[in-house]
Write a structure and sequence with these properties.
By secondary structure, this protein is mainly alpha-helical. The protein is 80% helix and 6% strand. The chain contains three helices and two strands; from the N terminus they run αββαα. It has a two-stranded antiparallel ribbon. β1 and β2 form a beta hairpin. The longest helix has 84 residues. The N and C termini lie far apart (124 Å).
């Protein structure tokens, strides 16, 4: 049976101690790292909550201000039949005042609203017409391109037909010459072909 020496036992003990200390250090470092991460996220959460609370408070205050202003304006509008309009120059002198009845203001607001509605409707109609005009121009350009391509195709077909008629006329001429030669030689003539008969009228 083999027994390790004292030096070997001390070495093993030292290695075990080293790994134990290393594991302890790793656990401590991990705990510290997790603690820092947890603190960081908690701080972020607190800051976010503070920002959200501030935004909510600002919105509440703004809503209260708008509601109070609207209440004042509505109350002033309901409780008074006449209003005074002030025209104050930049230098603060010669301030002009104009007293206006509430019914006149109502009519002015109605006319302004109707004018605004007419302007918006006119702008929308003009925009729609512009879009339709652009679409019609595009379709017209496409139609012109298609028409030009069709005209080019028809022109080529006419040229091909004219060329075919010329070739048929030449063939008919050669056939007539051959028939004359065969008739002089006393050879029986075969009947004329349809192509030769149709080519007698010449090119179209």
């Amino acid at each position: 049976m083999y027994l390790p020496s004292a030096e070997s036992r001390r070495t093993l003990t030292s290695i075990r101690t080293f790994f134990a200390q290393l594991a302890t250090c790793c656990k401590a470092a991990s705990a510290s790292c997790f603690a820092h991460i947890e603190k960081f996220w908690l701080d972020c959460l607190r800051r976010r909550q503070a920002v959200l609370q501030k935004i909510a408070a600002d919105l509440t205050n703004k809503r209260a201000e708008v509601t109070a202003s609207w209440t004042k304006v509505n109350r002033a509008w309901q409780d008074n039949q006449h209003f005074t309009l002030l025209f104050i120059p930049a230098n603060g002198r010669n301030v002009a005042k104009k007293h206006v009845a509430r019914k006149h203001l109502q009519r002015s607001f109605i006319c302004a609203g109707a004018l605004l509605a007419v302007l918006i409707g006119g702008f929308g109609f003009t925009a729609k017409q512009a879009i339709l005009t652009a679409e019609e121009k595009r379709e017209l350009a496409e139609f012109k391109q298609v028409k030009q391509a069709q005209e080019e195709t028809i022109r080529r077909l006419e040229q091909m037909a004219e060329k075919n008629q010329q070739e048929l006329a030449q063939i008919h001429k050669l056939e007539e010459e051959m028939r004359k030669q065969m008739a002089k030689s006393g050879i029986s003539l075969p009947p004329k072909t349809d192509s030769a008969a149709s080519a007698q009228g010449g090119p179209v």
